[in-house]
Amino acid sequence: xxxxxxxxxxxxxxxxxxxxxxxxxxxxxxxxxxxxxxxxxxxxxxxxxxxxxxxxxxxxxxxxxxxxxxxxxxxxxxxxxxxxxxxxxxxxxxxxxxxxxxxxxxxxxxxxxxxxxxxxxxxxxxxxxxxxxxxxxxxxxxxxxxxxxxxxxxxxxxxxxxxxxxxxxxxxxxxxxxxxxxxxxxxxxxxxxxxxxxxxxxxxxxxxxxxxxxxxxxxxxxxxxxxxxxxxxxxxxxxxxxxxxxxxxxxxxxxxxx
Amino acid sequence: xxxxxxxxxxxxxxxxxxxxxxxxxxxxxxxxxxxxxxxxxxxxxxxxxxxxxxxxxxxxxxxxxxxxxxxxxxxxxxxxxxxxxxxxxxxxxxxxxxxxxxxxxxxxxxxxxxxxxxxxxxxxxxxxxxxxxxxxxxxxxxxxxxxxxxxxxxxxxxxxxxxxxxxxxxxxxxxxxxxxxxxxxxxxxxxxxxxxxxxxxxxxxxxxxxxxxxxxxxxxxxxxxxxxxxxxxxxxxxxxxxxxxxxxxxxxxxxxxxxxxxxxxxxxxxxxxxxxxxxxxxxxxxxxxxxxxxxxxxxxxxxxxxxxxxxxxxxxxxxxxxxxxxxxxxxxxxxxxxxxxxxxxxxxxxxxxxxxxxxxxxxxxxxxxxxxxxxxxxxxxxxxxxxxxxxxxxxxxxxxxxxxxxxxxxxxxxxxxxxxxxxxxxxxxxxxxxxxxxxxxxxxxxxxxxxxxxxxxxxxxxxxxxxxxxxxxxxxxxxxxxxxxxxxxxxxxxxxxxxxxxxxxxxxxxxxxxxxxxxxxxxxx
Lengths: 258, 525
What we know:
The complex is a heterodimer. Chain A is an alpha+beta fold. Chain A has ten helices and nine strands. Chain A has a single domain (about 1-220), classed as Alpha-Beta Plaits, CATH 3.30.70.20. Chain A has helices spanning about 15-25, 30-35, 40-45, 85-90, 115-120, 145, 155, 170-180, 225-230, 230-250; strands at about 5-10, 55-65, 70-75, 95, 105, 125, 135, 165, 200. Chain A is elongated and about 90 Å long. Chain A starts with a strand and ends in an 8-residue tail after the last helix. In chain A, about 45% of the residues are buried. The model of chain A has no long low-confidence stretch (mean pLDDT about 90). By secondary structure, chain B is of the alpha/beta class. Chain B folds into two domains: about 70-135, Alpha-Beta Plaits; about 135-505, Rossmann fold. Helices cover about 35% and strands about 10% of the residues of chain B. In chain B, the strands form four sheets. In chain B, strands 5-4-7-8 form a four-stranded parallel β-sheet, sandwiched between helices. Chain B has a four-stranded mixed β-sheet with strand order 6-11-10-9, with helices on both faces. A two-stranded antiparallel sheet of chain B has the order 1-3. At the A-B interface, helix 1, strand 3, helix 6, helix 7 and strand 8 of A face helix 2 of B.
């Protein structure tokens, strides 16, 4: 069954254990400049604190709720779409979706075209511009841990249960239950966005105020072009056959050139 | 014999290109059709690292130790280096179980991350990720400025901790070397916080007597107010008990105020040019000196250019770093003396540094304040309030009043038990001493890391060193301190006089609005 993670934004206390867990498990390097940034700083950045070595980031938004100032911490990382646009854009099959949920990337297959970055509706993927042989970097949703029946690194360390790992269907039901009982905004971000994502967010403050892309389509992005793009190999094959036939037919009675 | 090369079929340039082109087309078509090797979880980037064992359990198995405490980047007392954090969970362990701060609020958090700045997490952190906020640069800068008089005070328990940073046995008393090192670093005047510890006893003791006699319309039990972590804890979780807190400032703040008023007046120094530094075993003191109400000197002198009473607080560890950075051979330093005026304390002041010390000192002077006679020698060794138990009780016999019940608490979880009892109205005690850190200041959040996690063995050895200072002291009662008599005669007139109230007493604010009170006894999640 497809796995997912439920992010209960009001439960986050901003300890950033998840970011550290991600660094530890994926052996991501520490950038001295990034290290000094605070969640408030990162929330103001255009890239939401995501860098090649920062696959997840906690961003703090200063909001108003019922007239009083509140702070909300939002975890940012790859949403792991059910039907990912990056996967459909990748012609070398370097990005693929696993049946358990994670959208993973194999750098050996990558040619560095960065179509995936253009395709991503949530602007998650980062390119290693500083490296001579660069790759595309993003949250992998700990595929080896998930395959071994363990939860993802970030969810395993969350002290408050703000991020919960589980079966996506069960998490979706839990999310709706929490929306009802806690008086949250009536929307599970990720239920339908971009055709549904493995990561689901619920919140007591409006998503628009926390830099969520709420205008994203609910249709799966590859479905826009899938209808005709999936014909490409067949059209190519057919053309090759036709042209080869024509060639043979035209040269049937000719003498060899030499 | 014909050459083999001559027999080989000739491959023309054209047919070679045709072959290569055709093969490429087939390859590309197959690839586009998805006939590649399927990707597997093992081939994905990342996942090559390490996680502590408790996180590698299958599925959503419950784990008792998870994650770490939140630390506000603006926290004035403590900072964390994420690069060093291994998510062992020790900080949560001490914050939740021993200090009962983390998890004692409902989610969502409002705006502020609840923290009493006690710094016990810096002592428990095994990788040194959590440390005090380093303020040494500010002090180096002030020391380099010839126009500024840098006045420093040292807390009772830094002298029995500092030596450990230089390889000396736990609890070594390095009072004289500490003074010498401070002078060598360039501090102009070196005062002893033991002096204001004695002064605190005079103010707090007088306040207690007035509460008991009914002269002061404030409730008993009176709670001590020298520990800024404890004071903030009351403001957060027990705002209804704020009237019980003694209004007397902590010794650090009293010393700071007097530096910029009493000392400046006596020695004819411009208070605007005094930079007041405090060497403390404590991280919460960094928060305390930044409290907006701690500007009594500026208020008293009606001069907004006078900086806060205490400009910078350095922990014992920071002072050790300064000494190391300056290349001073600490062990070889000759013993030096504190500057006079505010540089001598009694044995009663010295034991402020350990749990029970304030109570013992207060008992001696309360006896004197009530009866007008010197306390019996039994009060010089008030054993029931000594030792490392979290909650200790004692009864002090004072003629004319009878048996006075007192309690001594260290560790904030222990404090909760007693505070809940006060709330329910069945507290038999008149006076309660509370220190946020288990064992008191001697193992405060700013002391050298002698064991990890902190152990009672180290606490006992440090406490023994403080009790030794007291036992060997010529004067063992705060009210006998000649400099205390002098400051009252020359400057403050009497304990709790109008001037003393203005300079040495403070007020507290409720911080209950900063979070939602915990409703159930369940854990955070």
